[in-house]
Design a protein that fits this description.
By secondary structure, this protein is an alpha+beta fold. The protein has 5 domains: 6-276, 3-Layer(aba) Sandwich (Rossmann fold); 278-389, Beta Barrel (Elongation Factor Tu (Ef-tu), domain 3), CATH 2.40.30; 399-466, Alpha-Beta Plaits (2-Layer Sandwich); 473-595, Ribosomal Protein S5, domain 2; 600-681, Alpha-Beta Plaits (2-Layer Sandwich), CATH 3.30.70.240. The chain is 28% helix and 32% strand. It contains 16 helices and 36 strands. It has a 7-stranded mixed β-sheet with strand order 2-3-1-4-5-10-6, sandwiched between helices. Helix 3 packs parallel to helix 4 (113-124), helix 6 packs across helix 7 and helix 12 packs across helix 13 (577-594). It is elongated. The two termini are 61 Å apart.
Length: 696
Amino acid sequence: MKAYTTEFVRNIALVGHQGAGKTSVAEAMLFNTGAITRMGKVEEKNTTADFDQDEKDRGLSIYMSLLPVEHKNHKINVLDAPGFVDFQGEAKNAVLVSDAAVIAVDAVSGPEVGTELAFDYALEFDLPILVVINKMDRDNANFQNALNALSERFPNHRFVPVMLPIGSQADFRGVVDVMNMQAYEAEGKSASDIPGDLADDAETARLELIEAAAEGDDALMEKYFEEETLSDQEIGQGLRAAGNSVIPVFAMSATHNIGVLPFLNAVLNFVNPPSARSITVENGRGGDTEVIATGQEGASPLAYVFHSHTDKFGTLTYFRLFNGALKGNDTLYNLDAEEEERLGSLLTMRGENQEQIDALHAGDIGVVAKLRGTHTGQTLAKKGTKQFVVRPTFSMPIYAVALQPRTQSDSAKMGEILTGLTNADPTLNWYQDAALKQTILEGMGGTHIDVAIKRADSLGVGLDTAVPKVPYQETITKTAEAEYTHKKQTGGAGQYGRVFLRVEPLPSPTGDAAGEDFPEFEFGNEIFGGSISQAFVGSTEKGVRGVLGEGVIAGYPVKYVKAIVFDGKMHPVDSKDIAFQIAGRNAFREAFTKASPVLLEPIMTVKVTVPEENMGDIMGDMNTRRGRVLGMDTEAGRSIVTAEVPLAEIQRYSNDLRSMTAGRGVYTMEFLRYEKVPAHLQAEVIAAAQKEDEEE
């Protein structure tokens, strides 16, 4: 593929709800531009975008796919992003590096949860939005209903049809382009007159289009008042100037290749070249931010890595070159890793197929292989550059598993492979939980985690998964005392230490105090008269602190407790450091069990967004999970339920929510505070912990 200069490049992200047909739209765009000779189908597992075996097996897009097409001497980089909410990180990164978001909407279902997420991403990065109402050939497809639903769901935007459907459902056979007032039937390679029954609708739509374009540009408004019309070029200019306040809407059936070619023509008119794009950068990672212009070929190179794909052959790194120009074998500096990277050959990808390119100009998207230490979310530039591209922010993980390597070999490689997976996908996170003695992998849902585990397996690491332990905490509710004597005689010098210990509850950040800063442990010394030397008081404290991490009643960390040693006894010969450590540990355990110990459990704030008809199901389900509903809102056909729910009751909520809403519900979850576990449930947790100890 030849190198295209900045003014002849367009970058679009295909985003939207799962099942809206984004991959089929991309496949049709490839076919209409001659990049492929036969259109694949998702159900036949032969599309260009979904080349990964896991995508074929599941019948859905998992990874962002780069699909450049060449049309009318322009290069359009199409980024086909997953619509499944578990993979929202891929979609958000695709939008960040694009110049427009093309949001696919099902002509039957209308806007759904994934549509809202796509709108949020485009608005966050201030990108123009184009809407494609796809699947016009389906039973019950209705262009006007979908258009009305969009206006209702997103009342701050003006949706203006650029194309009108000719027919609908089984009779859908073409589109009317209201810019040039021509009809394009079948594959749309030739224009014809508008059918008579659509002439009035087309005139009305064209007038609305011209008015919307005029409102986007003062000069065009003046011309419109004078001449009462605008040229096709001026309409495009006005709509581009309007940003995302005015949203052009198109109609098509991608699988039947109807309306796709006229849409491709429109992309060149409605999407700005990269030189119109601005991005936010940090002056030093985490420093002050500023907005800079991009698409400047004469500027110093500035690139952002937005996707990495690793298989058994190595890693491919995808980046957008926001400024500057590059040739093969150029060297850039990784500002985050603080190391130089030699790029090697410059590539573009079409699905899994590589094509070498000689140069890359500002605004274009490139791919390089086998970089040493560069990961998704990092900035590449010339050494000495201080401007880092601001990374997107992602929702907190809502699904976690505990990992267990299957073999010793898997254990040795697990950390490296998990780090590689999380470097490639910023919505994945793994860590070792010392308190729970588990390796935890977090993600955006069960499917997200399943894909990661399967990817690890393909890279040579076998992992078994389990539901993670809930990170309970142990504390006390009253003051108690205990005495413990450690005495051991072995024939020579023995061990002796006697400790009198009191425990007192400290204020804990529960209820309204959540978020305030409270000490988790304090140690006090009330020894008078030297019954225990200062050194052995220190030994006693060391013994007590040794219990804090391992717990007393159920093996969970001890928090918000004060331990005070107030008396004791030592032996002039047999008293040793270890003796007082043991005495302190056991005295603390005894006092703790006398002080009405309780378990604290994490409470999460959960925000669930579902169709209105599912609201009753969600409310009832929250009650069964010990949830407290804080509020209910209804926004344009969607219901939002906010509740406080114990983590123990919601660890697998993503699976249940998907079942209750047929995949149309989403939720976010954030830690709020700790609260006491109800007594009957506490007994169950303690019994389970004791059983686990016995089995071990």
